[in-house]
What does this fold into?
Amino acid sequence: MPRTKGSKNRTKIDFEAQIAKLQKDKSLLEEGVAKTVAQIEELKTDIKSMRESLKSQRAVSGQSSSVL
It folds into this structure.
């Protein structure tokens, strides 16, 4: 009797477990990106406030030099 073709010792691939792992990894990466975007927005607002304070300081120093 001839042997059947194909490996009977082939490992079973658990696609569901792989998909679940990749979805978990994806959600963690999305969380990290969201945190980074929030930090960038916070830094942008800090820069704007610093620019405004610098403008006001320049305006005050410009007025005092014109008085002298």
